[in-house]
Amino acid sequence: MVKAVNSPGKTKLAFTLLIGASLVWLTFSLGQWQTGRAAEKQMLFDAQARALAASPITPGSARIDLDNLSYRKIELQGRFDAKALIYIDNRQVNGRPAVQVVQGFRPEGAAYLIPVDRGLLLRDPAEPRRAPVMPEEAAVSGADVSTLKGTILPRFAKSAELRGVLLGAAENIYREENNGFQVWSNFSVDEFEKQLNQPVSNFVVTLQPVAQTGDSPGEAPVEARKVNGFYHVAVPLQEQVAKHKGYAFQWFTMSAVLVLLTLFFVYREFYKGNKP
After folding, report:
1. For residue 5, is pLDDT > 70?
2. Judgement on whether residues 225 and 263 belong to the same structural domain of the protein
3. Which of 174, 163, 179, 171 is nearest to 127 (CA)?
4. Which partner for 27 in 60, 117, 133, 255 could form a disulfide, CB atoms 3.0-4.6 Å apart?
5. b (16+ CB within 10 A) / e for 99-131
6. What range does the domain containing 267 cover?
7. d(CA 67, CA 246)
8. pLDDT (tens digit, 9 = 90+) per residue, 29-82?
9. Which pTM does this prediction carry?
10. Are residues 213 and 256 located together in one domain of the fold?
């Protein structure tokens, strides 16, 4: 009488292969998604770098095409409005508490204001909650015509986040008046417009330098420097390409590991263990 040879159940084998293939497909798809995100971020970074290298423009209205004009240099004549002045809290300069000074700039002959990031002011360690005064070098009266030379940004940063990150809802802004200045926890163009009761541009301008560097870990941070009484720190472009590539590598590696584990498990359980 011939002894029957035990063979793996077809259902169990099919189920094992199905689970393994599903996990491989999932991890590989996530790797492809991260690769696509890296390509999108690279395209965005390249476009921003080209905009920074382009010649300055002089916008003629309060509304511009932010998709094509963000990170372009700007140059126009006008005056700073002394009443359109606020501080954004929770900033830092070399680890020291600071505020970001945002002041409205009115182009010559225009009926609207452009929110301008003039730089950072340090808080007094002896009175850390007292709003710092504006430097004497800064013209705040609006009496003199000056030339605004800066970089167009789509928005300012949310509190405790990097510049360029999408702002949260305006109702989350905490405000207080301190030492004669308006101190906000956040910035919103809409709220700035309501505060002033006059039209405000859909873009903002920073006088701080905009860095064309990426997110490589070996790059040294740019030191803060003082300009007209304000501290200027480089505003980084949001590349994040390396981050997405790193995630993609992890997912693709996991896919390869799952393929090997599935094949090993099938061989051990359904082939090697059932040899006569």
Report:
1. no
2. no
3. 179
4. 255
5. bbbbbbbbbeebebbbbbbbbbbbbeeeeeeeb
6. 26-42+240-276
7. 27
8. 888 888 888 887 777 777 777 877 888 888 888 888 888 888 889 999 999 998
9. 0.69
10. no
